[in-house]
Amino acid sequence: MHENDIIELNIEDFTGEGMGVAHLNGMTVFVQGGCPGDLVAAKITKVKKNFATAIVKDILNSSKHRVKPFCPMQNICGACSMQFIDYDYQLELKRKIVQNALLKVGGINFDVPIPVKSPEKFSYRHKIQYSVSRTKVSKRLLIGYYKPNSHDVVNIKHCPIQPEICDKIIEYIREKAPDYNITGYSENEHNGLLRHIILRVSKHTGQVFVALVINDNKITPELKKFATSVKEKFTEVTGISANFNTKQTNVILGEKTQNIVGMDFVEDKLLENTFKIGTNTFFQVNPETAENIFIYIKDYIKSNFDKPTILDAYAGIAAIGMSVADVAQNVVSVELSSESCQKALAGLDENGIKNLTVINSDTEKYLKKIKRKFDLIITDPPKKGSTKSVLEGFMKSCKDTIIYVSCNPATLARDLKYLIEKGCKLISIKPFDMFCHTHHVETVAIIKMPENTYSID
To answer: Taking the domains of the chain in order of start, what are their residue ranges?
Structure first.
């Protein structure tokens, strides 16, 4: 087997990274674009000692679960890795992704249910994060997602998984930015102004907040005029901010953001609570699935506790904390981002919530500092999961239950393994389809503390 070979493969399984799995002569081959049950002709793209990678070139015998993609860009855009698989089977594959991660990473044999369906399968994505580049000759702007396994930007004119207003705003930026001498960013040359565009769309109102990530440390007069023209063109736009990122890095956002025109946020509503969402504010991309998760957590608390004390860790704008505040004695929401904390405090005033305290702190540092114990801890860490120090802090600070919300089954399994080794018990696992047509899945785990008081050796 060599690079560029065209070989026939039976797709047998699906990975947690969105690749089909095949075997040939004892070698595992990970196949981009493969659906379990397919017989494909695939081109080998890489050969390593124990595995190879390939890309589907032709479908010789189609899986019963394969469907026609609803987006014509599916083959070249890296955003929707499961769009060619029927939706019900997508859910089954995601169930297996979670179950396999628990077993292979955590050594945990646990029966995982089918994920809760997303109420919306199209136009569900309310955070859009596009990369910006430019063509080599004409220098026209390219705005969209990266091609799979590359940093080549696919110019997206229409994306069915996001609200239609996003297409209109992006097309206007693509056409009009050059009139204001705003150039697309070149990653290789590290020049050009506009690096990324972030849109935050309110499910509740349809309004949009726009953040322009620029390769500069100031707002130029041309950029201000351009931002003003965008806001004047679209009544849906609440405001536009600039985020400054001059580093040669793959990290999207820089440390500093400045408002250009209008407001620096858009308001959205979940479970009757209003939230302010800005440039660097964590807020779930699929609001209706987020509501399903919040309802699930809240119902569990109501059924098992009587007004508990709650720690809301990695809280963002305290969306989960606010959603459960009315069934709690008090909630402490801990978040590192000062911008998110400011938006959370504004949300408390907006929603009249009196029993929630916002702490602007790193979760690990907060846990090391406090002496109190909470009845319940809710944690929604980033994709990399929690550190051992944080998990130890949870065990020291929790009387009864940890509710762990995760977007990464592998790091969830790793963290659960650690907690179980320390005497905790996994009570339930429930996946939710937050990211339709992708291999990503949101999972809520409920963990009981050991009966005996935990102490670190």
So the answer is: 6-66, 99-118+286-448, 127-270
